[in-house]
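Q: What residues go here?
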């Protein structure tokens, strides 16, 4: 368990990250199952699992399907809860040099997800972005992007000092204002 966050002298981000869901109980964010014999099975990050129509899938499985499309250099997917409980799942793609996101490419991306991951996890919309925001150690910022698209101010969603490419968040802020 981490004991603090860098540049979080008051501990606000730390408490929000680990103690806001269950007061006084550390919530680490992984799905685990404790078996009858005490053994644990770790399924992965709860915040990177997307539940669509009762079908749960990790984002890495969607990324693996998108990676099969040669024109896509990188991708990021989130599932945003909207008013009325509706889910909106956008997929953001960084395209190879000289490639445009046209209807044909969108169709091939969706087909790859349907065939190689899950028909339930075909995105509602696909957006081309110049870059995927990442932490200093290269982790995609799925949760902060989801928060921004849900209306959280960007400065509350992610600490720019912890990003390798803070300017990458700007496109998601622009999209959140239009969505």
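A:
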């Amino acid at each position: 368990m981490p004991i603090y966050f860098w540049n979080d002298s008051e501990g606000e981000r730390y408490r929000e990250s680990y103690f806001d869901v269950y007061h006084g109980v550390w919530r680490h964010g992984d799905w685990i199952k404790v078996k009858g014999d005490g053994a644990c099975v770790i399924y992965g990050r709860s915040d990177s699992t997307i539940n669509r129509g009762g079908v749960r899938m990790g984002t890495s499985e969607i990324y693996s399907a998108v990676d099969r499309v040669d024109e896509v250099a990188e991708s990021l997917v989130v599932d945003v809860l909207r008013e009325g409980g509706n889910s909106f799942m956008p997929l953001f793609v960084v395209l190879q040099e000289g490639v445009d996101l046209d209807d044909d490419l969108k169709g091939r991306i969706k087909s790859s997800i349907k065939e190689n991951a899950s028909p339930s996890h075909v995105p509602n919309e696909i957006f081309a972005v110049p870059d995927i925001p990442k932490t200093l150690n290269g982790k995609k910022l799925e949760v902060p992007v989801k928060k921004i698209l849900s209306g959280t101010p960007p400065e509350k969603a992610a600490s720019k000092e912890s990003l390798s490419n803070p300017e990458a968040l700007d496109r998601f802020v622009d999209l959140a204002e239009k969505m």
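A: Context that may help when evaluating the design: Helices lie at 12-18, 59-66, 103-116, 142-149, 154-157, 169-178. The chain has a mean pLDDT of 87.
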